[in-house]
Amino acid sequence: MYHVVCIVGVTTGLFWARPEDAHHLIGPWTQCYTLANFWGRTWHQNFRRALQVPSRAIARDVAGAPQGSTLSRRIQWYVAFTISGLYHYAAAKTTLPSQSFAKTLTFFALMPNLLVIEDYAKSFAQRRFGCSGRHWRLFGFIWTFATLTIAGAGFVDDLVTHGLVTARPILPFSLTTIVLNLAFGRIV
Protein backbone atom coordinates (compact mmCIF):
# COMPACT_ATOMS: atom_id res chain seq x y z
CA MET A 1 0.00 0.00 0.00
CA TYR A 2 2.80 2.43 0.86
CA HIS A 3 4.34 1.97 -2.58
CA VAL A 4 1.00 2.77 -4.24
CA VAL A 5 0.76 5.96 -2.18
CA CYS A 6 4.33 6.83 -3.21
CA ILE A 7 3.57 6.30 -6.90
CA VAL A 8 0.41 8.43 -6.69
CA GLY A 9 2.19 11.08 -4.63
CA VAL A 10 5.09 11.44 -7.06
CA THR A 11 2.99 11.12 -10.22
CA THR A 12 0.48 13.77 -9.18
CA GLY A 13 2.94 15.94 -7.26
CA LEU A 14 0.50 15.79 -4.37
CA PHE A 15 3.02 14.49 -1.81
CA TRP A 16 6.45 14.50 -3.41
CA ALA A 17 7.84 16.27 -6.42
CA ARG A 18 10.58 13.73 -7.15
CA PRO A 19 10.79 9.93 -6.76
CA GLU A 20 13.88 10.24 -4.51
CA ASP A 21 11.75 12.21 -2.00
CA ALA A 22 9.53 9.16 -1.39
CA HIS A 23 11.64 7.31 1.17
CA HIS A 24 11.49 3.67 2.14
CA LEU A 25 9.49 3.00 5.29
CA ILE A 26 12.45 1.27 6.91
CA GLY A 27 16.11 1.85 6.09
CA PRO A 28 18.86 -0.79 6.24
CA TRP A 29 19.14 -2.72 9.52
CA THR A 30 22.89 -2.95 9.01
CA GLN A 31 23.08 0.71 10.04
CA CYS A 32 21.67 0.11 13.54
CA TYR A 33 24.99 0.03 15.37
CA THR A 34 24.08 3.26 17.20
CA LEU A 35 20.80 4.66 18.49
CA ALA A 36 21.38 7.75 16.37
CA ASN A 37 21.67 5.56 13.26
CA PHE A 38 18.60 3.53 14.24
CA TRP A 39 16.48 6.68 14.40
CA GLY A 40 18.23 8.62 11.62
CA ARG A 41 18.78 5.92 9.01
CA THR A 42 16.49 2.97 9.72
CA TRP A 43 13.27 3.49 11.66
CA HIS A 44 10.26 5.34 10.11
CA GLN A 45 12.21 7.03 7.34
CA ASN A 46 8.99 8.39 5.88
CA PHE A 47 8.52 10.54 9.02
CA ARG A 48 12.13 11.63 9.39
CA ARG A 49 11.85 14.66 7.12
CA ALA A 50 8.62 15.81 8.77
CA LEU A 51 10.45 15.85 12.11
CA GLN A 52 13.72 17.19 10.70
CA VAL A 53 12.33 20.40 9.24
CA PRO A 54 10.91 21.92 12.47
CA SER A 55 13.82 20.52 14.49
CA ARG A 56 16.41 22.17 12.26
CA ALA A 57 14.45 25.43 12.19
CA ILE A 58 14.25 25.58 15.99
CA ALA A 59 17.92 24.70 16.40
CA ARG A 60 19.02 27.28 13.84
CA ASP A 61 16.48 30.11 14.08
CA VAL A 62 15.33 29.96 17.70
CA ALA A 63 18.39 28.63 19.53
CA GLY A 64 20.95 30.08 17.12
CA ALA A 65 22.98 26.86 17.11
CA PRO A 66 25.52 26.66 14.27
CA GLN A 67 24.51 24.19 11.57
CA GLY A 68 26.25 20.84 11.98
CA SER A 69 27.32 21.56 15.56
CA THR A 70 26.90 19.20 18.48
CA LEU A 71 24.50 21.70 20.07
CA SER A 72 22.38 21.81 16.90
CA ARG A 73 22.26 18.02 16.67
CA ARG A 74 21.17 17.67 20.29
CA ILE A 75 18.51 20.38 20.05
CA GLN A 76 17.16 18.61 16.98
CA TRP A 77 16.95 15.32 18.92
CA TYR A 78 14.97 16.91 21.75
CA VAL A 79 12.59 18.73 19.38
CA ALA A 80 12.05 15.68 17.16
CA PHE A 81 11.34 13.34 20.08
CA THR A 82 9.04 15.89 21.71
CA ILE A 83 7.01 16.20 18.51
CA SER A 84 7.01 12.44 17.90
CA GLY A 85 6.15 11.70 21.54
CA LEU A 86 3.24 14.14 21.51
CA TYR A 87 2.04 12.65 18.22
CA HIS A 88 2.15 9.08 19.56
CA TYR A 89 0.56 10.13 22.85
CA ALA A 90 -2.23 12.08 21.12
CA ALA A 91 -2.95 9.16 18.79
CA ALA A 92 -3.20 6.75 21.73
CA LYS A 93 -5.29 9.15 23.85
CA THR A 94 -7.66 9.80 20.95
CA THR A 95 -8.24 6.07 20.68
CA LEU A 96 -8.57 5.42 24.43
CA PRO A 97 -9.08 8.73 26.30
CA SER A 98 -9.50 7.06 29.71
CA GLN A 99 -5.97 5.56 29.70
CA SER A 100 -2.85 7.45 30.82
CA PHE A 101 -0.17 6.23 28.35
CA ALA A 102 2.47 7.63 30.72
CA LYS A 103 4.97 4.97 29.63
CA THR A 104 4.65 6.22 26.05
CA LEU A 105 5.58 9.75 27.11
CA THR A 106 8.41 8.40 29.25
CA PHE A 107 9.90 6.51 26.29
CA PHE A 108 9.96 9.58 24.06
CA ALA A 109 11.31 11.80 26.86
CA LEU A 110 14.05 9.26 27.60
CA MET A 111 15.23 8.74 24.02
CA PRO A 112 17.05 12.07 23.39
CA ASN A 113 18.79 11.70 26.76
CA LEU A 114 20.02 8.25 25.75
CA LEU A 115 21.24 9.73 22.47
CA VAL A 116 23.24 12.35 24.38
CA ILE A 117 24.74 9.63 26.60
CA GLU A 118 25.60 7.64 23.48
CA ASP A 119 27.18 10.74 21.94
CA TYR A 120 29.40 11.29 25.00
CA ALA A 121 30.31 7.59 25.16
CA LYS A 122 31.23 7.48 21.46
CA SER A 123 33.33 10.61 21.78
CA PHE A 124 35.13 9.24 24.85
CA ALA A 125 35.70 5.81 23.26
CA GLN A 126 37.07 7.36 20.06
CA ARG A 127 39.50 9.58 21.99
CA ARG A 128 40.55 6.93 24.50
CA PHE A 129 40.50 3.72 22.46
CA GLY A 130 40.28 4.79 18.82
CA CYS A 131 37.05 2.78 18.59
CA SER A 132 36.72 1.43 15.07
CA GLY A 133 36.34 -1.94 13.44
CA ARG A 134 34.04 -4.91 13.72
CA HIS A 135 34.28 -5.31 17.49
CA TRP A 136 33.06 -1.77 18.13
CA ARG A 137 30.29 -2.17 15.60
CA LEU A 138 29.21 -5.44 17.24
CA PHE A 139 29.20 -3.69 20.61
CA GLY A 140 27.11 -0.94 18.99
CA PHE A 141 24.50 -3.42 17.74
CA ILE A 142 24.26 -4.95 21.22
CA TRP A 143 24.00 -1.49 22.82
CA THR A 144 21.27 -0.39 20.40
CA PHE A 145 19.26 -3.60 20.78
CA ALA A 146 19.54 -3.64 24.58
CA THR A 147 18.77 0.06 24.96
CA LEU A 148 15.71 -0.04 22.71
CA THR A 149 14.51 -3.24 24.38
CA ILE A 150 14.79 -1.90 27.91
CA ALA A 151 13.74 1.70 27.19
CA GLY A 152 10.95 0.64 24.85
CA ALA A 153 9.42 -1.97 27.15
CA GLY A 154 7.01 0.51 28.74
CA PHE A 155 5.98 2.04 25.41
CA VAL A 156 5.29 -1.39 23.93
CA ASP A 157 3.48 -2.40 27.13
CA ASP A 158 1.19 0.64 26.79
CA LEU A 159 0.34 -0.37 23.23
CA VAL A 160 -0.17 -4.09 23.88
CA THR A 161 -1.98 -3.77 27.24
CA HIS A 162 -4.57 -1.42 25.78
CA GLY A 163 -4.99 -3.45 22.58
CA LEU A 164 -3.55 -0.86 20.20
CA VAL A 165 -1.01 -3.40 18.96
CA THR A 166 -1.36 -7.17 18.96
CA ALA A 167 1.76 -9.00 20.07
CA ARG A 168 2.28 -12.10 17.95
CA PRO A 169 5.51 -14.05 18.27
CA ILE A 170 7.21 -14.87 15.00
CA LEU A 171 9.73 -17.29 16.48
CA PRO A 172 9.24 -19.95 19.18
CA PHE A 173 11.34 -17.75 21.53
CA SER A 174 11.78 -14.02 22.05
CA LEU A 175 15.26 -12.54 22.25
CA THR A 176 13.68 -9.41 23.73
CA THR A 177 12.06 -11.42 26.54
CA ILE A 178 15.37 -13.13 27.27
CA VAL A 179 17.21 -9.78 27.46
CA LEU A 180 14.53 -8.21 29.67
CA ASN A 181 14.51 -11.21 32.00
CA LEU A 182 18.30 -11.11 32.29
CA ALA A 183 18.28 -7.34 32.80
CA PHE A 184 15.75 -7.53 35.61
CA GLY A 185 17.27 -10.58 37.31
CA ARG A 186 14.80 -13.25 36.30
CA ILE A 187 15.79 -16.49 34.63
CA VAL A 188 13.93 -17.38 31.45
From TrEMBL:
GO terms for biological process: lipid metabolic process. Residues 24-109 form the Wax synthase domain. It is a multi-pass membrane protein. GO terms for cellular component: membrane. It comes from the Eukaryota. Keywords: Membrane, Transferase, Transmembrane, Transmembrane helix. InterPro entries: Wax_synthase (IPR044851), Wax_synthase_dom (IPR032805). This is Wax synthase domain-containing protein. The lineage of its organism: Eukaryota, Fungi, Dikarya, Ascomycota, Pezizomycotina.
